[in-house]
Each structure stands twice: as structure tokens, then as C-alpha cells.
Write a structure and sequence with these properties.
Layout lengths: L22 H31 L18 H23 L7 H14 L6
Helix pairs in contact: 2-3
Length: 121
């Protein structure tokens, strides 16, 4: 053993603390950069697939069905047309005082209820 050496291994000096630049902001910046990288990679991969497979196209098809024969509801609705017209005439005449048209509204509601259709008030 050389003289002056005690044979003991000495530990390296402690690391100095690095100054912090705001940990939360560093994380936010890293997240934003990751998002940009993902978005750019995604766009590039779409372009590569489009160049190999051809551009993506969407076709919209409209299916036209045969007209159904006249239903009994349509016939009964024409039976309620007279009540609907009477109610509309009353509303047009009395405008601001709709309470005077309650009778016509009740008649129209009763007709629609008996015909099985929904009252659209």
C-alpha cells in the first residue's frame, strides 16, 4: 500500500441541487409537446395509408320506400280538420284572449283522442 493512503474508499461528493424552473410548468410543456408530436404522427400516418390505399371516400345512399296505402289515421285526421279550422279561426279572431277559444280546443283534443293521434298544442 502506498504511504498516505488509509485504504478506505471515499464516497464521491454529494450532487448539487439543480435549480427548479417550476415543475408544474415543465410538466405542462412536456404534455403539450407530446400532444403535438402525437397529432403530427397521426396526420403523417393517415397520409401514408391514404397514399397506399387511396383516399378515403364516403358515399351516402338514400333509400326511397314505397308509399304506404292510406291509413285509417289519415282518414280520421281529415275528420278532425273541421275542428282544427274552427280553433284556428277562433285564435285568429280573438288573438289576445285565447280563453274564448277553449271550447274549440276541447273539441279538437277530443276528436284527436278518439282518432288515436297525439294532440299537438
Amino acid at each position: 500500500m502506498p504511504r498516505g493512503s488509509s485504504g478506505v474508499n471515499r464516497a464521491p461528493p454529494p450532487a448539487t441541487a439543480q435549480p427548479s424552473d417550476g415543475g408544474i410548468f415543465r410538466n405542462i410543456r412536456a404534455t403539450i409537446v407530446d400532444g403535438f408530436a402525437f397529432g403530427a404522427g397521426n396526420a403523417v400516418s393517415h397520409r401514408v395509408v391514404d397514399s397506399v390505399m387511396g383516399p378515403r371516400t364516403f358515399k351516402h345512399e338514400t333509400v326511397v320506400s314505397q308509399a304506404a296505402p292510406a291509413s285509417p289515421v289519415a282518414t280520421s285526421m281529415s275528420a278532425c280538420d273541421i275542428h282544427s279550422k274552427a280553433f284556428q279561426d277562433c285564435v285568429n279572431h280573438f288573438g289576445s284572449d285565447i280563453s274564448k277559444c277553449q271550447f274549440y280546443m276541447d273539441m279538437l283534443s277530443e276528436c284527436k283522442k278518439n282518432s288515436g293521434s297525439v294532440v299537438a298544442a
